[in-house]
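Case study B.
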Amino acid sequence: MKYKFILSGTGGQGAITAGLLLGEATATYGNLFAVQTQSYGPEARGGAARTDVIISSSKIHYPKVMYPDVLVCLSQEAYNKYIKMATPGGLVIYDSHNVKNVKIKDYKMLGLDMFGACMSEFNSVQMINICMLGVLSEIVELIDPETIRMVIRNRFKPSLIDINLRALDMGINLVRELGEEKVSKLKLQ
Amino acid sequence: MKKNEILFLQGNEVCARAAMYAGVSFYAGYPITPSTEIAEVLAELMPAEGKAFMQMEDEISSICAIIGASLTGNKVMTATSGPGFSLMQEAIGYGHMAEIPCVIVNVQRGGPSTGMPTSASQADVMQTRWGTHGDHSVIALTASNHEDIFAMTVEAFNFSELYRMPVVLLLDEVIAHMREGLTIPEPGELPIIERLNTSVPEDSDYHPYFAREDGRLPMSEFGGIHRYNVTGLAHDMWGFPSNDPEVANTLIHHLVNKVENYKHDIARYKTTNMDDADIVLISYGCSARSAKQTMSNLRQRGLRVGMIELQTLWPFPDDIIYDLCRDARYVVVAEMNMGQVLHQVKEAVSNPDRVFLANRVDGALINPEDIENVVNLLRGKGK
Amino acid sequence: MAVTDYLREQFMPHIWCPGCGHGIVLNSLVRAVEQIGLEKNDVVMVSGIGCSARMAGYLDFHTMHTLHGRALAFATGAKMGNPRLKVIVPMGDGDALAIGGNHFIHAARRNMDLTAIVMNNNIYGMTGGQFSPATPKNRYATTAPYGTIDEPFDVVKVATAAGASFVARSTTYHVNELIKLIREGIEHPGFSVIEILDQCPTYYGRKNLSGSAVDMLKHFKENSVKIGKGTGAPGEIEIGVFVKEVRPEYCDKYESLVKEVQGGKK
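Model:
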């Protein structure tokens, strides 16, 4: 079993950090193989940023993502830049507050208001990337949310652990609130 | 760090940690993309262990400083990328001439000149071999995954001590920046070769350039009991300059033979599915990851594809390649340059006309489809 | 120990031309080392390339004859690799200031305990008499057949501005003072620069009609003034100690850093 992700957002939204945490969660605690890559240099400073993550139950060779099973766009800028990477039959998850201009094509689309949820819960959007990981873990069966919790507990300053755990659960709940019927169509098993 | 814990690390970080494992006690370097993280990690780890870390004024002083520190008894390393590696060439030649153990990590990036600093390339293979002026042989290792980066970094230190010479570790932007899981080996798990110090007693004549029967040249550190001369000039077995043609001739042959005669000991490579292979992929570093994927894709379609991953690039393991490729219908070399290892393979095999190149030089990692397209063309199935 | 005990006498006579001042510098250096009473095993000498660089081979220390301009970089590694050692770096003017200029200013900035001896004969001797960054303006060299238009470096000013904590100048005429200055430089716990105006009768002298080696030494004698005693006349050579300040030394600072890191203070 192998899933390929492209996580994208605008600089500062933490898409790349999320990729790193997802990789660490699956590789260190999830007993899976994971590879994370990202673009460096001028592209990484401001503007849309992207990271590629592959998680797999067997060794991963080619480390980049050409055909993502899931493309995540946290901003309109990232959406405009990376939507061309979406694959037929693949899933595109976007933040429905930030990404307004969406064209439906032959891939599955899921818009969730992660921005709004973060604002109402924390009065800040700083945790939007962790919320997104919650969304992913609910949709992709290979991602065990418990492994992400372990990374959060090990990586974050004590004062930030609780709030990030809550952001993760918030993402999980955003998906659950869609209802079982809709979620079962999106799930990657 | 818990025992057997899997760490999710960047390739550069793995290299830095492996250097610590190998016992590096002096590092000097200058920031340059995409190698900088090696210095950043060592800047944190080394002082904590009482080891010396220095950021120098440029790459030239970095390589010179590590050679100086090697002579005062340290295991030494520097890390750089394209332009910095070019700047280091003169002193690397000095390291070969004076036979000083040191490790140079070159995280390759696009070139020539400033090129594509943040993009992947494998175009320094020939510079590593022929970058300095004059004749000598070199040892260069490479790696395609984190376990191998760790092992090859340690091996680079081992070879540098064993053969008393600079050793180059050729990484690339993709694996250096990529993160994947790695369990750091336990102390003792990988063999470490320590500096061989002379047993010649004080007041007896020590010859820094006189090889033992097994070919090794025991050292005596500066500050120790033997005073001798080290020079980049042609020199005798005491290290003093000599214009004697016979002395120069012996020295140059020694600098070549001390590597070429041990080619088989230095050769590190992996073979997969070679037993029945009629199409052989040869690759190394980041390209080897893609080649492996290509092999697995084509095997699923019933093609008899095998693969050789080279970890030692220099001295080039030509007779090993000759043997392994003897029955191949096609040999495809996958690399991110205009054919630097390709030519070595062509020289090595019995029929160079059946060796082909799958490459990419645009800074993007060569992908499995790029390699597959070449195989398909060879099979007459090209688009 | 006798001063000759510091020499590798088997390599004498040396390769320097008749009348060259480098032998005087070698002589003064050996006497300075002898006066301090340094153990031969505690001294590392690192040189670059050029006439001056050959000095290392003639001395019975741990000697490293390296690359043009890079002696200070090799020396930096050697010292940091074993801070217990005394590291002395003889250099020529082209070696130290042209190709090695970057290493020179950064070594001064770092204030590592190295002793840099700049043997300034205003010319590239080994390659046959080309002008250097220390050749005065309007002088002749094989690469300046019509006279130089370049402004020269003032070694003392460069070293001072770059942060050297000991800076001195003398000439090959003032042998006794030279021994004292080299001794002071070696004993100074920080980066020391001793500029020694040195005669090259073969190339600089011949090209610039400076006469014999004796004439050149007389020129040093007649034009030298103690610091502060000069009139500011052109061609005047100020000699003496320009800077002598004890500032934190690099290896010591690193050792303190290591202790702080290991003690959990950083």
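The interface with chain B takes residues 20, 23-24, 27-28, 33-44, 60-64, 66 of chain A (CB under 8 Å). The remaining cases will be described in the next quarterly update.
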